[in-house]
Specification:
432 residues, Nucleotidyltransferase, domain 5, 6-stranded antiparallel beta sheet, 5-stranded mixed beta sheet, 36% helix, 15% strand
Amino acid sequence: MKGKLSMSVKEADRITILDSLVKGKIKQKRAAELMGLSVRQTRRLKKKYKALGITALIHGNRGKESNHKIKEEEIEKVMQIVKSKYYDFGPTLAFEKLREKKEITFSVEKLRQVMVEEGLWKIKRKRRTKIYQARERREALGELVQIDGSPFDWFEGRADKTGNITDSCSLLVFIDDATGKLLNLWFAPCESTSAYFEASKLYLTSWGKPLALYLDKHGIFRINTTKGGISASSDSVGLTQFSRAMAELKIPLIFANSPQAKGRVENVNGTLQDRLTKELRLKGINSIEEANRFLPEFMASYNQKFSVVPKSAFDAHRPLLPSENLDEILIQKHTRILSKSLAFQYKNQLYQIKTERPTSAMKNAPVIIREDTEGKITVEYKGKKLNYSVLEERPKMEIVERKEMGIKMREIKALVYSDQKINHPWNRWRYR
């Protein structure tokens, strides 16, 4: 026989066995055992080998096009959709979107191969990672809830309906340790005490109180200085405003010593920065308000795909007590001492108490200042609200937390640049 034959190692090994079988050196049962075939199949192969020789061992479809081969026209059609809509999506996420709209008929692995060939996806080499001791999930829902903030350009520099470009903001994430279920998501301009109060109120109202919260050592959650034993954001020794509120609700706080320790919420932050950002783009959402309205729909879809069944079906969340009014707990609370004239200073403003009782009764008395998330201030003395007036507003000197620095600097630059633009000699006539 002329020409070349392409055979696999498995097929080549059968030549010696079939030669011995044809020559009568071994029986069909033994030959079938050596080739891993049935006796009936061995009998047919022996007959074919006698008639055709070595070519009988070669698979009949070798060198031919597969009957299941995907048509080039179909692949080209899918790639045009990917290039127009999902050009920066990963293969898995792009496949999910195409499958939802029934625009693809082949597998995600085939899509990955084509995207690599087209240069839309780069194969990531596996890095050598440090090995950390694995921690088992908690057994029940609500037993441990991890909280973290994820600052990111969630709207990819798009402008909202008013034409203003939405700056990068933070997504506050509440995730259950036992199930991996997203319990609450909330967009805020930055990580701040008031933002965490607002997000916590939504979570506690929907689910109840968890047995414990797992947090990092950010200054919002914990005092990280021992100077005087008081943090810059709290008047209570050893407690920030957030930790004071959680103490009133009887919710213990556990602080992680490293990002890897709270890996569940850190990993979901990366997933959300990929999936949620693209969902916001597809939905045409360009502002924090619109995004917060969309988040419940996104969480329901995410939890359906990625949450797991806990070991215990028991829900460890505790209901809020009638005495636990979140509007009174999740607010800023500060203490001030009244002067002889019943005045006190708060946030660079001088306040005067108005009272009909003799002023001597309240000299040097401690009053509690409550400031809600909207900035409304109430003053209380022995559980009763006091009337007040603002006497003097002094030059604003504000202590800004590290994660709020970017927003404050943008506000200052906007004011400075707008003044320079108006007062510039070339532009003055425009603003008369």
